[in-house]
Each structure stands twice: as structure tokens, then as C-alpha cells.
Amino acid sequence: MSLRSSISRVVVVATALTLFPACGSTSGDGDGDGDSTSESGTGTDSESSSTTGDGDGDGDSTTSETSTSGDGDGDGDTGPTDLPDGASCAADMECMSGQCFLVPVLGGLCGECTDDSDCPDGGCSIPNPLASTGSTCNEGELGGGCETDDVCQTDLSCELILDVAGILTASTCSTCGSDADCDNGELCTINYDVANFTGDRTCVVPGTVLDGEGCDLDGSGDMACESGLCAEVDIMGLAQLGVCGECAVDADCDAGQTCQATDVDITTGDVTPAECVDA
Predict the structure, then answer these.
(1) Which domain holds residue 84?
(2) Which of 14, 71, 115, 278, by CA, is between 20 and 30 Å from 38?
(3) Is residue 254 domain-resident?
(4) Counted domains in the chain
């Protein structure tokens, strides 16, 4: 299922979720003494009570017992507080871990962390809403999620990898942030792992990045690609990536050929690089 489908589904579901007030009724009890019975209830955590005449004609009454039921998990609470990592959530208190990572539009997922401060040995890797996997703590290794350089291991820095329409951004501990961070004339390029909303930046020898692999659109992407071309790939209007390919437009191809654009499947991570095909 695509990210856009996920977003649409979440919006529809969120619109449909409304709260209904408890209902109650009061009526005569039919014994002729003018007293009445009343009942009320609210969902799973409910209380019920009733008052009726005792049938002896003297107008007094008896009251039945009142009961309260929990959520059925035996721990005495009355709400969904035991959701596992990866489950949908709206607040920290709903999760077994005590951490609900909220993603605008898509909602929240229970996980190990919501930011770097929750992870004593490294940073917080963001959840994957498409695969329903929660956020995880890492050790600041290459590709580990981060908010600042401080959580990354020695010689690594925290760099932006993906920005999905401002809804979800992924930054990870990387070898470089620009070409200036690389030695011996190497270039800083991007390795994308789109299906898992992650990746990293690393130094490479010029002209060695194969077609279908990531490249830096705003930097030396063309020089890093073996084909000499780092083409912009638009993913459903939600994100723009640089991917090495044979062409970007028809003019890059020989006469009688057209450029078949790069295709990125964000659910599987499969990339089909751009290539020139016969018209």
C-alpha cells in the first residue's frame, strides 16, 4: 500500500472516530406506587444501578448493587495501556513502553523512544508507519537515527536523509555531510533505504555509484554517478530524491529513443533506474 493510500486511510478513519455520550432512560416500574427505575452505562468501563419499589405497597424501595469492570487484562486499570511496540496510539500512556511516537497526519506508533533523550546509548530511529514498526533506540552507529551529532559515534555526524513533505523527516548518523568531509578527492553521496525510512551519507570515489543508487541532487551527484547523471525522482509529490540513471529527459537519449523515468517502490524499496528506450 502506498504512503498516499496510508494517509488517506488514516484521515478517513480519524474523521469517522467520534465520541458518543452515554444513554440513559427513566420510566415507571409498573407497580402503581409512582416510583421509577433508571439505568446508565458507558462502554467497557461501566456502572449500572437500578431503584425499584419492593412490592409491599408502602412506597419504600430497594437498590441493586453497583459494579465496575476493567479492561479485562487483570492489572486493575480501565484503559488501553498495554499496547505493544508498533501498535497505533495517541498518547504515551497507551503504550506498554510508555512511548508513543506521533507522526503528523499518520498518527502515532508505540515504540522504544520519541527522541534521543529516551536512548541512553545512542539516538532514536524513527518508526516506519507503512510497516507498522515502532521507533527503536540505537547505539549511534552508521545509519542509526539521530537528532544531533552528540548521539553519533566518533567520526560520524547527524545528517538529513529523507524529508517526506514535512510529515516525517529521517536523519541518521553518517560518514559525511558534504564533500568537504571526505578525503582523497572522494565525494559525499546518499544511500537511501526508502522502504524503511532511513539511509546514510557516505564518501565514495567519483564515478563509482551505479544506476539505481542514491546521489546528492544538491551537490556533486553527477560526478559521483557512473553514468555521469544524478536525476531527480519525485515520489508522489511527497519527496524528491536523487538517483543515478542513464537519463533524466529525452534529450539525454539517442535519436528515436525516449527516457523512461526512474521508478521507486516505497513499500519494497525496489528502484528501477531511468533508461533510454526505443520510442
Answers:
(1) 80-176
(2) 71
(3) yes
(4) 2
Domain assignment present for residue 166? The answer is: yes
End-to-end alpha carbon distance in the chain: 31
Closest by CA to 263, choosing from 229, 231, 217, is 231
DSSP-derived secondary structure letter, 153: P
| 30 backbone φψ class: left, alpha, beta (φ>0; ψ -120 to 50) | left
Contact yes or no for 225/206 (Cβ under 8 A): no
For the chain, the 3-state helix, strand and coil shares in percent, each to the nearest 5, are 15, 35, 55
Q: What are phi and psi of 242, to 5 degrees?
A: -100, 130
Coil, helix or strand at residue 221: helix
Same domain, 89 and 134: yes
Report pLDDT digits (tens) over 77-114.
445 578 999 999 999 999 999 999 998 888 899 999 99
Distance separating alpha carbons of residues 164 and 174, to the nearest angstrom: 19
> Grid coordinates in use for 51?
431503584
On whether both 232 and 278 belong to a single domain, the answer is yes
Residue 194 exposed, middle or buried by CB count within 10 Å (0-12, 13-18, 19+):
buried
Residues 84 and 164 in one domain: yes
Is residue 14 assigned to a domain?
A: no
Domain assignment present for residue 37? The answer is no
3-state secondary structure of 50: coil
211 and 270 within one domain: yes
C-alpha cell, 26 = 427513566
Which region among 27-36, 53-62, 88-97, 121-130 has the lowest average model confidence (pLDDT)?
27-36
